Amino acid sequence: MASNHYKTLNEHYPWTANPTVVLAPMRMISTPPLATEVSRAGGFGFLGVGTDVSTFSPMLKEASSILESSLPTSEGVLPIGVGFICWGVDLSVAISVFESAPLKPAAAWLFAPREPKDLISWTEGIRKATNSRTKIWIQVGTVTMALDVVKSCNPDVLVIQGADAGGHGLAQSSSIISLLPECGDALAKEGFGHIPLIAAGGIIDGRGVSAALTLGASAVCMGTRFLAAPETPISNGYKNAVVKASDGGVTTARTTVYDKIRGTIGWPATYNARGVLNQSFWDHGKGMSEEENKRLYEEEMKKGDAGWSDQGRMTTYAGTGVGLVRNTQPAGEIVKEVMRDAKERLKTVGNMF
Ligand SMILES: Cc1cc2nc3c(=O)[nH]c(=O)nc-3n(C[C@H](O)[C@H](O)[C@H](O)COP(=O)(O)O)c2cc1C
């Protein structure tokens, strides 16, 4: 069963506790103060380089200086990962940072290549530049993608992202409740059952974590849950909108509207992003032109936190689990609470029958 692979994870990432909670590499959000808190608490913090490779070296330096050698790793490895949105990054620049980094990130998270084959150059390039000290994690969203990626890249870890996930993902996918076990079965059948699977999308607390482990995940990834943490560098308006939102199945949607008005364009056509519904979304639905919607968004930006009011237009990327994020809580506490709660729930369920 895939969930036994948590031992492989603990071997490769010896500072992690079980069940391991992974901080998603959210672009401009998963910065060193947040990611290092997650790793310090026994989770796995990822830095979100996203599409801006110029942030890679400074973030790595900052994370190194925060962590120094405080957590156990193999020699020359930093207990932190780094995530790339591949279509937007010049691989050769990323590789040169990997080569020159005195401490290599423990893992590289690859997401959304322009073409699936690009992941081969990413995987080979990073393995060569770091002498395989940086492990390769690839985030996928369908069974077909999972199979293609393991055959072409042989990654160390696969992140299985379901449709409930906040932020960008495939426009068409299912929730992890069916996606994860189907991926697990398909991979095992083709001889790839040794690859640990990480569940992502809609996991907010110990209940979600225990469910994901039962589905066959070896660990879980959370993005939305960390949005309201004090270490998260987003505005209070955004944090309040996350805490306030509920019933995410109807108050969030997957859409390209927010990318268009914000100018974050260039994503492969198969991707969109999940966010809380707001005035920009509704106006788009009523037929407002993209130009006018963008103009109103830019006006709204001047309002600061008030731009996230009920009639606001500022984007709140978040997953369907947003209604379970009910307060601001330090990232390290989140990790410890979620791990503890998941273990208790698994024990309770184990004693039921
Ligand atoms: C605000 C936000 C930004 C995100 N940015 C990225 C990103 O830059 N790169 C990436 O690989 N995934 C990104 N994701 C998706 C995560 O990798 C992950 O799949 C997702 O957060 C899991 O679902 P959850 O939000 O329900 O926890 C983002 C998610 C959120 C909520």
TrEMBL record:
Keywords: Flavoprotein, FMN, Oxidoreductase
Annotated organism of origin: Mollisia scopiformis
Any one GO molecular-function label of the UniProt entry: nitronate monooxygenase activity
Annotated TM spans: none
The UniProt record lists the keyword Flavoprotein: yes
Any Pfam family matching the protein: NMO
InterPro entries from the UniProt entry: Aldolase_TIM (IPR013785), NMO (IPR004136)
Domain of life: Eukaryota
Protein name: NPD-domain-containing protein
